[in-house]
Write a structure and sequence with these properties.
With 468 residues, the chain is of the alpha/beta class. It is built from 15 helices and 22 strands. It has two domains: 261 residues, Aldehyde Dehydrogenase, Chain A, domain 1 (3-Layer(aba) Sandwich), CATH 3.40.605; 179 residues, 3-Layer(aba) Sandwich (Aldehyde Dehydrogenase, Chain A, domain 2). The longest helix is centred in the first third of the chain and has 20 residues. The protein binds nicotinamide-adenine-dinucleotide. The site of nicotinamide-adenine-dinucleotide (NAD) has 30 residues, from helix 7 and helix 8.
Length: 468
Amino acid sequence: MPYHLLIDGALVDSADVIDVIDPTTAQPFAQSPRASAAQADAAILAAKRAQPAWEALGYEGRRPYLERFAEAITANLDSIAATLTRERGGPIADCRFEVSRARDAIAHFATQSLVDRVLLETPGQRIIEQRYAQGVLVAIMPWNRPMTLLSFKLGPALITGNTVIAKPAPTTPLSTLLLGQLAADIFPAGVFQTLVDANDLGPLLTSHPDVAHVSFTGSTPTGKKVLVSAADTLKRFTLELGGNDAAIVLDDADIAKVADRIFAAAFINAGQVCFATKRVYAPRRHAADLAAALAERAAAAVLGDGMNPSTTMGPLQNRMQFDKVLDVIASARAQGGRFLTGGDATGQGYFIRPAIVTGLPEQARLVQEEQFGPVLPVLAYEHVDEAVAAANASDFGLGGTIWGSDTDRAMAVASRIQTGTIWVNQHMALPLDVPFGGAKQSGIGLQNGLPGMEDVTQLRILNAILAE
Ligand code: NAD
């Protein structure tokens, strides 16, 4: 088998395997090793053993390893991106972009440091804030963006001196295994390891006493299970969870111009992005025009195999998500939604034609829930206060966008939105030196930027009385 787990510096197989399904065809195309509980225990032991020496290297000692890892990803970008297209679905250009973003994140964090801060310095006293590694970090990943989302954990955790075990989602294990296969020749044994499961190793990893930090990206219900499981040993944790991001279009927006951007924001990766626009609020007098402009773009989408350069949209990543989105679509139809285009399965693989839906009540499932697929409701508002209230009336609080010609006014509206990130006249700008994280039930903790590094370290205060 060309894919192996990386445990304690060795590329290993397992007694069990899982089939990996190509969502473009709904057929298995490869197999992945499936780690046993004993292999998970072995990985945790190796990570714990390796951590003190890795931390002792200091930032300068660790940087070259991350640099070499980033170079190895660059050298293998084509094959990793092609594997991603097969297992995740979606245009090869987008998969190449995802892998290059992951490489950029590793290369960026290779240059970063957390430095001691003097909090007080007087003739008699010195107080210094230091940050040291927490220990073994487990990265539990979803299937929608396996490479970038892992790199946002891996870069900050490794450079600060933690050791990392990556557990990808069972439906997208291969790209992560390829990273492990590159890492095997680069990092000391136990510093970075990979485990693939069949949705069964989570509880072991999140409750294990030798795991210091669980960094989880996935759905809100699973995030809550992680929180409960980590409680017994008071683990540190990062939870990056679901969202129901609203786009609010202001009455001075140029509808044709924003239609392009809102379409891209909503249908990136066929809507399977945590920060994708999941509902649109437009002034009543513009709503029909905007919905029609979005429907025109949806109808022009080219669905197909991601390796075909003309493909602009891929399938749903897995059968469960495909069924879930079709169910949300059925409920939107039942609740009086008017489908301007799309909303039906193509009959091949897990493809659903992108849909624009109008006429739904605010209480509709498609408006209230995270659809995580290519179906977008457009809702009309009378006054912008209504749109702000609707955007905030959600248990989620991940991101959102405001669109308008008067930037100051758009920024004032943005300042009223209760999310972790809110973009004005743009979407998905996530600079690596800027933190992101969810408000409310979209998460706890931050990733990226210095705050993302701080979240995987322990604060230590040195408080000294200076000798007379
Ligand atoms: P999921 O919650 O089903 O699975 C995520 C991971 O958790 C998988 O690796 C899975 O094997 C593992 N897991 C399952 N049960 C577990 C348990 N009991 N304990 C520990 N781990 C367990 O999520 P998904 O369907 O793979 O991903 C889609 C979700 O991820 C969406 O809600 C999306 O919004 C969210 N997401 C959030 C962000 C963000 O940054 N906030 C980014 C991407 C995706």
